[in-house]
């Protein structure tokens, strides 16, 4: 029996509609219907969340949100006075512990084993690898020294890689589920000029998430899983444009971010409008997106220069 061409077309149409419906229902479930899953990581005695780059922007607000949901905190920063001020602000009710460590993420001599040793008795169930810095490189890559660019690579991926490596045995010893998050960027999916020190690092973090997930899942499964968070524009210290529909404040974004923890997706945009943005990028075609990103990048770099001059 052979299928007529009209039956083939209607079969393909049905498949297309079903796959779109599946996608749409996953979207509704993820952002609007699903019960909160972050409480899966609140187990055992005094559970801790470790957040890197917690002195400003997204990291600071995610730390605040986690504290309000019952987590003790280990916060990372590079400036002790600034970090102590954040700790004072977040922990003013004194209901939970907040510990901290200092490290300039761009340095090559960080002793990650020592950092992990410092927290060996804590019940860490969440590791939020948030630290990152676009670096505002206004010139082409070869205008900077290899050491300057290596510093960017350390901040944007190697620090997270090494810290995760040092803390993995600790996370595996948690009595229940433990989650490692890598904070990514939508810029890894588009090709904008002057992001050579940043976007490739975010792609690395995504591949790392996938590989570490399979590593912990197969042969001898463990309690640890990994999620890569796709982030669009968010108002922060390094993104000082005004808040808008597609650019939430760090506070608003942090609420969505924390809600997405434990959702079970390997790669997720925690803010639903960033997810819509990401989807539209796939529809527009590479050439148009590249052109658009180049215009936006020009604006961002010139704004950044003005902010830095006025700081
Ligand atoms: N905001 C956005 O539009 C956007 C978009 C996509 C992805 N992201 C990602 O979101 C994450 C947070 O960014 P954000 O926008 O919240 O930035 P932010 O407000 O500038 O905060 C960055 C945090 O990282 C720390 N940090 C930066 N460089 C460091 C270094 N060399 N050593 C140690 N700490 C360092 C900062 O410390 P100081 O307070 O001492 O500066 C601060 O705590 C990053 O991974 C970024 O790539 C942000």
UniProtKB/TrEMBL annotation:
Keyword Oxidoreductase: yes
GO cellular component: endoplasmic reticulum
Transmembrane segments: none
MF annotations from Gene Ontology: oxidoreductase activity
Keywords carried by this UniProt record: Oxidoreductase
Keyword Chaperone: no
Family: Belongs to the short-chain dehydrogenases/reductases (SDR) family.
Protein name: Uncharacterized protein
Organism: Meripilus lineatus
Organism classification: Eukaryota, Fungi, Dikarya, Basidiomycota, Agaricomycotina
